[in-house]
Design brief:
By secondary structure, this protein is α/β, with parallel strands linked by helices. It folds into two domains: about 130 residues, Aspartate Aminotransferase, domain 1 (Alpha-Beta Complex); about 240 residues, 3-Layer(aba) Sandwich (Aspartate Aminotransferase, domain 2). Helix content is about 40%, strand content about 15%. It has 13 helices and twelve strands. A seven-stranded mixed beta sheet has the order 2-8-7-6-5-3-4, with helices on both faces. The protein has a three-stranded antiparallel beta sheet with strand order 9-12-11. A hairpin with a 5-residue loop joins strand 11 and strand 12. The radius of gyration is 22 Å and the shape is globular. It starts with about 25 loop residues before the first helix and ends in a 6-residue tail after the last helix. The structure holds pyridoxal-5'-phosphate.
């Protein structure tokens, strides 16, 4: 079949005239295919899915009730533009209550349709061709993808176990720093599960000032912090002068599909984000904003979700340790990031995490996500579906029975 005339018109940023012709299969597609194959090959064996990165529960009952009421109100029907005051005011109360951060709701907070969209838009406010965004790897790539869309360059900062999964800021070459505009961080970190100590944030503030950088701290997992009280970059003196923090309702409030989050911090940075956003979307449905405001005002919701994922994580760490994996309790997030086994005693060798992950799906129907960006690691998520604690325990017992049969190296 011949190409449509527009094949030549695709922009270089998505592959140009070669768009859609590549044969490379991306990581998540490989996992999907391997899962389908495992189900076909072993219909008798339940697939134990530690690969999912989405909360397994519905949003809180009260939040759904508010939504049901708000959806019928005529005043909520129209374009929300850059957001309603009710949501911004609830964010300000939440930031004060949870992190001791004082923000002006009118000028220092702006909603977004999920934090992913905010991370995709922020580069538009800063990146000209040739500018650099400093980004930690492994990590959530969206700000980097959009940096490249604008002709910018992503400079990767590896997160290594020996640095507690914090970037080595002092190791960045001066010529890179000269061209860098954005420093994108993410704590609690996905996928490593590390949290950031206050001293690190203090150093980041000083570093940003010294090198004229804007800090974007991705706090999507902020409420899932286990080794320290949930903290905010903006609570560190000076942080509000150098950056913004991007928050999400997805993880800490079981509101993944609702698409709600916010950007907060320096008013001029928030304003630049709001200007870009205003040219991309017309705001989240007002009923969702009001339901999200109700969620933010109920401190018991994130506590309950935190307790559930902490309990599941403790069980997972104990089980994998008994099976010979090297793991310790992560600082936060619902992800456990553990060195990938290099092979099996007397069995196959795995050249990287992807090979180990494919083996686990094919041979044991256990799904994980491999990361090979900075060492070979497997990510186990505790967002699997299990109706109650007995179901969680049964799932752990099943995983243990399978994993214990192999001598992992
Ligand atoms: C680190 C990180 N940042 C941002 C997001 C985006 O979250 P949302 O768009 O649902 O707010 C995710 C979602 O997986 C994430 O893991």
């Amino acid at each position: 079949m011949s190409d449509p005339y527009f094949q030549q018109l695709f922009a270089d940023r998505i592959g140009g005239a070669q768009y859609g012709k590549g044969t490379a299969i991306y990581k998540f597609e490989k996992i999907k295919r391997a899962k389908r194959q495992a189900l076909a090959d072993h219909p008798e064996r339940r697939l134990l899915d530690f690969g999912i990165g989405e909360n397994d529960a519905l949003a809180d009952t009260r939040v759904r009730q508010v939504m049901a009421e708000e959806i019928n109100k005529p005043e909520n029907r129209g374009y929300a533009d850059n957001g309603v005051a009710e949501f911004k005011e609830a964010v300000a109360r939440f930031m004060q209550r949870e992190y001791g951060v004082a923000l002006d709701p009118a000028s220092e907070i702006n909603h977004c349709i999920g934090s992913k969209t905010a991370l995709s838009m922020l580069p538009a406010a800063f990146i000209n061709s040739g500018d650099i965004t400093l980004m930690t790897v492994p990590g959530y790539p969206v700000a980097g993808t959009h940096t490249a869309y604008y002709g910018g360059i992503v400079h990767k900062l590896p997160l290594l176990v020996e640095n507690n999964f914090l970037p080595d800021l002092d190791g960045i070459a001066p010529d890179i720093l000269d061209r860098a505009k954005l420093l994108v961080l993410c704590y609690p970190n996905s996928p490593t599960g590390a949290t950031a100590p206050r001293e690190f944030y203090e150093k980041v503030v000083q570093f940003a000032r010294e090198h004229s950088l804007v800090v974007v701290q991705d706090a999507a997992h902020a409420l899932l912090s286990f080794d320290r009280a949930p903290n905010s970059f903006l609570s560190v003196p000076g942080a509000q002068e150098v950056g913004v923090e991007v928050h999400s309702m997805s993880k800490g409030f079981d509101m993944i599909g609702w698409r709600m989050g916010w950007v907060c911090g320096h008013r001029q940075l928030v304003s630049a984000f709001a200007d870009v956003k205003d040219n991309c979307d017309s705001g989240q449905f007002i009923a969702i904003q009001k339901a999200a405001a109700a969620a933010l005002d109920d401190a018991s919701i994130p506590r309950r979700i935190h307790a559930k994922y902490q309990r599941r994580m403790e069980k997972l760490v104990a089980m994998l340790t008994r099976c010979g994996f090297q793991c310790t309790m992560p600082g936060g997030t619902y992800f456990l990031y553990t060195p990938a086994p290099t092979g099996l005693e007397g069995g196959p060798r795995f050249e990287n995490a992807e090979a180990a992950s494919q083996y686990l799906i094919a041979e044991q129907s256990i799904c994980t996500v491999p990361w090979d960006d900075a060492g070979a690691f497997l990510r186990f998520s505790v967002t699997y579906e299990a109706a109650d604690e007995a179901a969680e325990d049964a799932l752990m017992a099943e995983a243990e029975a399978r994993l214990k049969n192999s001598n992992w190296k």
